[in-house]
Amino acid sequence: MAPQHKHLLNNPATLVVDSLKGLVNNNPNIKFDEGQRVIYKPSTKSRVSLLSGGGSGHEPAHAGFVGDGLLDAAICGNIFASPNVAQVRKGVELVTGEKGSLIIVMNYTGDALHFGLAAEQYKASGKPGDVRVLLVQDDVAVSREQGTIVGRRGLAGTILVYKIASALSDKGGDLDSVENLAKYVTTRLGTIGIGLDHCHVPGTKSGESHLNENQLELGMGIHNESGTHKLEVPKISELINEMLSKITNTNDPERSYVPFKGDGSDEVVLMVNNLGAISELEIGGITGEAIKWLQSKNIKTRRVLAGTYMTSLNMPGFSLTLLLLPSKSDSSSPYSSEQVLEYLDAPASAPGWAWTSGKEPGVIGEKVDDDVVAQHKVNEVALAPTDSKQFIEAIKRSCKALIAAEPELTEQDRIAGDGDAGLTLEAGAKAILKVIESGKLKGENVIEDIQLIAEVVEDDMGGTSGALYSIFFSGLGKSLRDLANQGNKQTTPEVWSKASKEALDVLYKYTRARPPSRTLVDPLEAFITSLPSKGLNGAAEDAQKAADKTKELVAKAGRGAYVNQEDLKKREVPDPGAWGIWRIVDGLRGFEA
Predict the structure, then answer these.
(1) Could you tell me which residue ranges the DhaK domain spans (predicted)?
(2) Same structural domain for residues 111 and 242?
């Protein structure tokens, strides 16, 4: 697959500024120095200021994290290019006060040089406040040998560093304490990313993919740097194992950067980061597998952050970050895990900061819902038919009538619809007969029996018909329950008539079809309307007349509305859904309430 090379923009040369203007329009709590491309918060000099930045193309990092509880300023370079010294110096001047500033940037040569030089120039100027620079190096894909001189790259773990450091600054921490906490966090971070392909920079020539259709690259950077390995695309569970093993493995002298103990006492914060073009559906699956893997290794996950934090434009890939929390048994640690989590959970307001629960992840399989259901059980009531055996036999007759009518219903629907009406109704009828044979549908309490029929129809019929029948029977069951609660102990013609009318009203809440519409509601309403005055046999005859009349009607709803109406009239085909209702009520004949 070739990298996605289509983009929506006015001009590649103005894309960064255009994007930053849009960000400020979206967030009136921040300001924009367009000349130096600095996004900043006004009036932040009462605390230790936090700054970050770098090349653009990693949105929402870094400008999207300027806000309360996060960054005070972000300095934005061109796509994948460090901002220059003048830009950085302007950002420092805008937000630095007496308490000083801490610049937290990813370890890339350009960023290290430009941000470092700007900090030194500010300090030499004699202006108030000290300025310090911290380089984040959390990439575990880079070996010690590779990074002997330049060190490791900074990746998405950078977001956690400045979120935690900013919370301490908000609590009044001085520059030393904020810097020390940030340094400590960086020593306990590990990140690794994968890409299904590289991204494409707007305004550049589209390149050919260097990966086969079934390959991915492990150890991707965020500036289109090649990874360390090419792999056949595995199941996500296998990929998660490969990635997290590299972060947690302490036996690899080249990549053992994070001091995991592996004795069951390790606790972590997990960050799942979308590098730009992975669907939310996939991110959810990735997150679940990562948590499951950590649980299997007896590593306790204290917090989970999943979303889009630091992208590589439109790269189809993701990264995993683990922050190893301070060990409870390590008395030499200057911080506790609860302190770090408190800083991580502190309120923050910025467009790029995704929602987090502030809690440990839920446990899959907990029977919480069952407990809630048990606490809210409805009062059991019963409503008996006048004759249980006759009630069951009437249901059987209706089901068998539908099964026998399958060929004619299917043929009708082949002409008037999509050809599946007969099979759909047959499936529902067979499923109901099956629950009768199993003894689950007993004929002792019509409320339970009708509710069971509603469930069976929903599960086994499917499609629009299944939904309509299930809604009707659910409404019928509720109405029968209400009538039982009003003191009725046994079904009567009056009870069935009232419950059926109320069930039809429920159905009408969810369908716009009304007689005459050439749908199943035509004979259904005719049957229910006639039931109080004409009884079961008379109502069934009216249902037959209404079903037969659908031959002459123009379809206003249902599948027939999409078919040539003149052709339907010429062929004199009744609506198969309406004909199915007639077959059902015809089967009920002979049943006395």
Answers:
(1) 11-353
(2) no
